[in-house]
Every structure is written in structure tokens, then in C-alpha cells.
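Q: What would this chain look like folded?
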Amino acid sequence: MSDAAASADRLVAQNRKASHDYAILDTIEAGVVLRGTEVKSLRNGKASLQESWAAVENGEVFVHQLHIPPYEQGNRWNLDPVRPRKLLLHRSEIEKLRKAIEQKGHTLIPLKLYFTNGRAKLLLGVAKGKKTHDKREAIAERDARREMDRARSRTRRGG
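A: My prediction, written as C-alpha cells:
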């Protein structure tokens, strides 16, 4: 593999529902502590962020419910697929996250899991849960924007 291909970000998993269910206020990139065959499983593109969440515990950040399925050839070296995994952040970043999630209604949500320069990274978002009417409003805005784009393309085509 060339250096350019190795340095490019390679997406493993993405939490698509996060932007629908939450208003993302801020994002931060963190390294993920992996053990055993978890890296091989991730390189195969297998992981799920669907039910995952992160928390600051005793001055460290952990991601919970991040599902990395066992590596097929891993046999006894495979670990629990949903074990809590430590995230690597600077102390100042951890303190910033801790203050952010202390506010009412704020939480840490994993948005993307990817490789950068051969290292597994997790994009965390400080998020605030959307109410049902906010979700409906977002859907209505998206539909209106789509309709305007369709109308513009129709007028460009002349018909």
C-alpha cells in the first residue's frame, strides 16, 4: 500500500442516526485502546456504533456498547464484543468533555470509527437529545430543501 493510501482516513463504521436523534454541539477525535484481534476485525470493516455511548469515569473516557464482532480466525484470543473500551485523550480534552456533559441534557455520542495513519480513531460528539417536534421540524426542512432543489433543476432543464 502506498503512503498516500495509508495516510487517508478509512471509515469503518458511522452512526447515521446520531444526527437525527441528537443536535451535535461539538466534536473531538480520540484514539481507541484495542486488544487482541479487535484491530483485525475492524480492518475487515466490522463494527457497529448503533447503541454505543461514551462517559467520563475517574478522569478517563470510556466508550460503552461499541460492538466489534469476534475475528473469525481469532479463536481463544477473541474478547467480549461489547466490552467498555478506553479512549485516548489529553487531560485538558477530558476536562473539557466532562464540563460539557455535566450540562443538563448533554451526552457523548460516538459518530464515526475510522483508521488514520494505521491507528483506530473514534469521532465523539457532544450532543443534546432532540425532542420529537424538533425531529419533525428537521424532516420538514429537509423535504422543503429537496423540493426547492427539484424545482431549480426543472427550471434549468426548461421544463
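DSSP finds five helices and seven strands in the chain.
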